[in-house]
Amino acid sequence: MNSESWKTNISKLKDFFTSEAAIISLVTAGLFFSSSVNLLYSDRLGIDPILVALFNILFIICESYLLYTIRATFNFWLYVKIGASYLIYLLLSYFLYATQNINNVAFDYLDISKVFRENGYTFNLFLILGLTLVFFFFDKYLKKSAFFLKSQVSTRENFFISQIMVSLFVTDTKFKSLLNTSSFLKVEQENLVHSLFSFAFLFILFSFLSYLFVKGISDLFRYRASLSSAFTISLLMAIIFNYTIQLGILLKGALLNRYIFPGATAFQILILTLLFFTIYLLINKFLISTYLSLIIGTILSIVNYVKFTMRGEPLLLSDFKWLKQFDLVLSFVSMTYIFYAFLFLCFLVITYIYLRKKVFYQPITDSWKRRLTGIVAVFATLLIITGALQTGKNKKIMDGVPVLSTLNNFNDVSWMGHATNARMKSLVYVWFKQATTPIMEKPSNYSKENIEKVYQKYTKLAAEINKSREQNIEDQTVIYVLSESLANPDRIDGVTLSKDVMSNITRVQEKTTSGLMKSDGYGGGTGNMEFQSLTGLPMYNMSTGVATLYTEVVPQMKVIPSISDQFASADRYAVHLGDAKTYSRADVYKKLGFDHFIAAAGTDEKASNIKKVGLFPSDASTYENVLAKINDKKSQFFSVITYQNHVPWLYGKPETVSGTGDQFSDAENSQLSNYARLLYQTDIETKDFLDKLSRINKNITVVFYGDHLPGFYPSSAFQNNPESQYQTDYFIWNNKKNTKLNYPYVNSSDFTAVLLAATDSKVTPYQALLTQVLNYASVDKKELTAKQKEIADDLKLIEYDIISGRNYISTTKHFFNKDN
User: Which of 468, 454, 474 lies closest to 818 in space, CA to CA?
Assistant: First the structure.
């Protein structure tokens, strides 16, 4: 840039800041500062609300006079644009207000008065327009007065309107909420200067963004592609898709007296805006970027809704790995959705072909420097966010990061699962937590020396336990049966069934070691339950960002301890009458040392005689494939997953079985009835399976459990007993002799220890550790003593070592086997 250009730009800046623009900025900044300081510091600084009221009056007078002074330049249409801007703001403000109340059953979307109650600027705007008319009335007197500013340079119209937009935001109730919950502004009184700088930063930021938005609206009406119009459309789409995404994971009701946590809406809109704006910057073509953004936003919203409807879980980052198995994904999607998606795509293609040479055909910007600057700014923002989340400790991040600090540090509800976190803290926040949180936090006492101490401790304990046990588990056949979605509906508040649909299973539970199992998911998570059951490694020690153990954790593990390892010299079978690609099971089972994988598709050993009950292979078909492989001459191990009761539930027999629930919709009652009928069949077929095993002349033990509840229950069903949402049934049965031990509530990771105790089987040092956890530190213990916590920490050390650590335990001998 040459010296003449510099002089020209400096002259323009000088003219700009000596015109009405400077007055507008000062007056708006005054209102911004006085309102902000009063809201945050009135209780400590003794700021009189009258002072704020006086400043507001000054603001009204100045804005009125500025309208009067620029009347010659902007004429009648200026007032039309101000009114239009006001209406646009009210519409967006109300839409955001409705979004934040999306889970509020009592919210009335048709109560238009909320639009004006949310914004206190309505009266001010009418005063400004009224005073402007008064100034016009006294026009000839004002022209003679030297007191009033004489307009030398016309104020830029977009800037003037953008400052009015800032004024609108300052008087909005959401601005008050932002100030009251922002850790960025909440500092101690002695740091008031810091706060003032923060206010200045916010004012400049809001002014800049408001200017871009107003200019973008202006460019859009002129069919002009520009960075401003790209930003405006990005923001508008972000606001809309923020709503559709949250609508897809709708769970009516409040949590901690809130329908969404502070900062959630702002954070998700920010990230979506950055995503869409990046697309514009990279492609530099307005129409195709807009269409691509629409497609991305629509797909995310629909897939998120479909997954939540089917499994009670939102779309997660780990789910994008399913794109490698796109044909399998499509098999779960209704043809109705595919048809509408095809129509939508055709509409976009046709309109693009028609419009691409008529409107917005020019590049968004000719300056590669502006594009690069924009892209760098976007990625810098994302780096700040990820850096803040990665450096957090004890699930808290440092204060002072706008929006994010408030959102992350406001009440940790991570233990309530991805659905609740996505609902209360936004789906995008859950994605960032998944991407930035390690699988396990490193224990403070993690070291090779401490791993050696754990090894020595439980090697000694294993020897003590084995003195009183006579059996070896590998001398018999063990069958783990994960029964899809099995959980007795009788435990759910308000549910009434026409008959007991699990009577046979209940009778088995009465005579065996049995009880309830804590599930880590609601409506989904089958693979996670199977992993924990086989390995003894609990998810509660891992990050809450982990969603799918088989795809996120297993691939990086060098050692995977499994009960199936005890059967290394026997035949090991995995049986699941679905597709072997699901959850990468084929690869996982190979890593676990299974010799055979029987599935409906994707393996060399395909299941036989598959018959459906409802929409999926029956439990009877699964059991028949297991029975066909049992060899009464040698020991075997089976990991079996049934498929019959998978979502969606559609089965009408017998009609005498039905169910209803308090506050259930007709659709939910219908699903409950269909599900109960499927359970009724499971109950019959499971009894028949056990009866057939009883007639086999070898020792067989069955570990039977449900993986999770079906996802159709409304949230109201768990209000009185929240734990019931994550409780399924289990029993451990033997075809020769049953022992009833007292383990009424266990984690899925406890099954190895329960199995060995129930069969009086010897343990490895690792299994001795699992036995201690079962007896002293499992999920049935609410408060742990120091000794119990030490046991829990020992397991956490070993789990971290083999998942995220240096695998020190592998340098020892025999920790995972009994050759000691």
Answer: 474
| Site of tokens 């040392």 | 593
Residues 286 and 399 in one domain: yes
Residues 202 and 266 in one domain: no
**CA 816/CA 176 separation, integer angstroms:** 58
**pTM score above 0.85:** no
Q: What tokens were used for 284?
A: 């530099």
Pairing mode, strands 659-661 and 513-518: unpaired
Note whether residue 179 is domain-resident: yes
Please give the tally of structural domains in the chain. 3
Question: Which residues are paired to 730 by β-bridges?
Answer: 515, 705
Q: Are the C-beta atoms of residues 701 and 759 closer than 8 Å to each other?
A: yes
> What's the gap between Cα 542 and its chain centre?
16
For 346, other C-beta atoms within 10 Å of its C-beta total 10
Are the CB atoms for 70 and 155 separated by under 8 Å? yes
Q: What is the DSSP letter of 540?
A: G
Answer with the one of 731, 761, 791 that is the final residue of a domain.
761
> pLDDT by residue (tens digit) across 536-557?
999 999 987 788 888 888 888 8
* Shared domain check, 227 and 196: no
Cα–Cα dist 738/510, whole Å: 11
CA-angle at 433, arms to 427 and 434, nearest 5° = 90
Give the 3-state DSSP-derived string for 65-118, with helices as H, strands as E and coil as C.
HHHHHCHHHHHHHHHHHHHHHHHHHHHHHHHHHHHHCCCCCCCCCCCCHHHHHC
Question: Which of the four pLDDT bands, split at 50, 70 and 90, describes residue 762?
Answer: very high
Do residue 246 and residue 215 come from a single domain?
no
Size of the chain in residues: 820
Is residue 788 assigned to a domain?
no
State whether 231 and 99 are in the same domain.
no
Is the separation of the CB atoms in 545 and 434 below 8 Å?
yes
Distance CA 384, CA 226 (A): 27
Same domain, 67 and 207: yes
Cα distances from 70 to residues 76, 79, 87, 128, 154, in angstroms, run 11, 11, 22, 14, 7
168 and 227 inside one domain:
no
In the sheet with 596-601, reading across from the earlier edge strand, the strands are: 605-606, 596-601, 571-579, 636-641, 477-483, 700-706, 727-734, 513-518, 745-747
The answer to whether 533 touches 705, Cβ cutoff 8 Å, is yes
Domain of 696 in residue numbering reads as: 470-761
For the segment 445-462, the average pLDDT, to the nearest whole number, is 95
Is residue 204 located within the same domain as residue 230?
Answer: no
In a domain, 457, yes or no: no
Is 642 within the bounds of a domain?
A: yes
Tokens coding 381? 């923002």
Q: 608: how many CB neighbours lie within 10 A of its CB?
A: 10
Q: Are 507 and 718 in contact (CB under 8 A)?
A: no
The dihedrals phi and psi of 495, each to the nearest 5 degrees, come to: -90, 130
Q: Which of 220, 239, 274 delimits the end of a domain?
A: 220
| CA 32 to chain CA centroid, nearest Å | 35
Q: Could you give the CA distance from residue 528 to residue 260 in angstroms, rounded to a whole number?
A: 28
pLDDT 10s digits, 618-666: 999 999 999 999 998 899 999 999 999 998 899 989 999 999 999 899 9
CATH label of the domain that carries residue 521: 3.40.720.10
